[in-house]
Amino acid sequence: MKKDFIIPYLKTLSLDPENQESPIHFLDRWKTPKDYFYLRNHFAYPQIIPQPFYLTIQGNVKKPVKITMNDLHHLPSKTIMLPLECAGNNRAKFKPKVYGEQWEEGAVSQAKWKGVPLRELLNRAGLLDGSKEAVFVGMDFGERKDLEETFYYGRSLPIEKALHENTIVAYEYNGKPIPYKHGFPFRLIVPQWYAMASVKWLQNIFIIKHEFNGPFQTKDYVYYPYKDSDKDKRPVTTINVNSTIQQPMNNSIIEEGPQMIKGIAWCGTGTIKEVEISFDYGISWRKASLKWKESEKYAWVKWQFEWQAVKGEHTILVRAHDTEGHVQPLRPFWNRKGYGYNAVQKANIKVE
User: Fold this and answer.
1) CA distance 96 to 135
2) d(Cα 115, Cα 167) in Å, to the nearest integer?
């Protein structure tokens, strides 16, 4: 069989709702094709009503507005390439184990999104004094068994983040309409925050003068540092600096001689400054070479390191640094819901 016809597949974690992991170790493109973009859902896919589609903005505004797809296409647009990472990415690696979808390294993907800056839309509605948060509600809904109630998926942003120049309401994914499973027709895209903030199937925006207390804001997507206490809890927001070893994969057997170790790195503050490799469990580190995507400040960085592999068993560690001084720690910040894992990544390799 020709190599061109050998393709990877998503890894299934659950089907109801559908949660599928990207084959991240086999993707070498800057833009993740839709068939390989990871899928994260809390509920069943929503039924999309026939066109025309529209988005409403109401609440603490001068004039509630209804925005159609045609309106969006006639407003100033912005195109941004960035990774979306599930806050639970790498959850399977926490020790002690935590409950939830047992994501490994494939709950992160990258695409080029085109849309209208959210602040352009909010200016149309006119924010009134006292506006504190913007609440975004998708079309997907279902029952939360822990609360015995039905909820739409909804999240909020501080008004400052909502007004950020690169927070957009997207209508295109990699140059085409957003795929149904990834939020068609409108999806909020929030750079540098974990993907729970980038609400899919966006239908309503509410401007409020207080803190939003929906369950996906105050119950889920919260760091709880202690197993049996809510002490010191804090919200999940900015992506932690992180990296992945794409090749060679963990527990691989490879040949002696020159081998290329490669992967990707990304962050939520600043940009990636440095990626380092260790072969002695972190005693010493060697710099990898980096490749940035030109003019894309949020895009992940590709890294590689040429290694003269010698026979035996080896453990490869990788860690990334960002320009704000953050570096991947040797041990993750344990929290009982398993968010934000970003400890140094490793691959155990046997060379024959």
Assistant:
1) 34
2) 9
**Neighbour count for residue 306 (Cβ, 10 Å):** 11
C-alpha to C-alpha distances, 72 to 61, 86, 121, 170, 292, nearest whole angstrom: 19, 27, 9, 9, 30
| Domain coverage including residue 332 | 242-351
- Provide the pairing of β-strand 301-309 with 133-144: unpaired
* Residue 227, both tokens: 């197993």
For residues 204 and 35, what is the distance between their CA atoms, to the nearest angstrom?
28
Q: Residue 225: is the preceding peptide bond cis (ω within 30°)?
A: no
The answer on 292 and 190 residing in a single domain is no
Encode pLDDT of 116-164 as tens digits: 999 999 999 999 999 999 999 999 999 998 999 999 999 999 999 999 9
**Assigned domain for 126 exists:** yes
The type of residue at 62 is K
Residue 144: both structure tokens together: 């939360």
Work out the widest C-alpha separation in the chain, in whole angstroms.
Answer: 70
Pairing of strands 54-59, 65-68: antiparallel
Verify that 182 and 258 share a domain, yes or no: no
Count the domains in the chain.
Answer: 2
Residue 166 within a domain: yes
DSSP string, 189-246: E-TTB-GGGS-SSEEEEEEESS----HHHHTSSEE--SSS--TT-EE--BPPPEEEEE
Residue 1 has pLDDT above 70, yes or no: no
CATH number at residue 96: 3.90.420.10
121 within domain boundaries: yes
Report the helix count and the strand count for the chain, using DSSP H and E: 4, 23
SS3 content of the chain, % helix, strand, coil (to 5): 10, 40, 50
116, two tokens: 């209208």
Query: Within a domain: residue 295?
Result: yes
Q: Which CATH number fits the domain that encloses residue 306?
A: 2.60.40.650
Tokens encoding 86: 């599930």
What pTM did the predictor assign?
A: 0.96
DSSP state of 255: -
Q: Are 90 and 341 in contact, with CB atoms under 8 Å apart?
A: yes
Boundary-marking domain end, from 220, 250, 268: 220
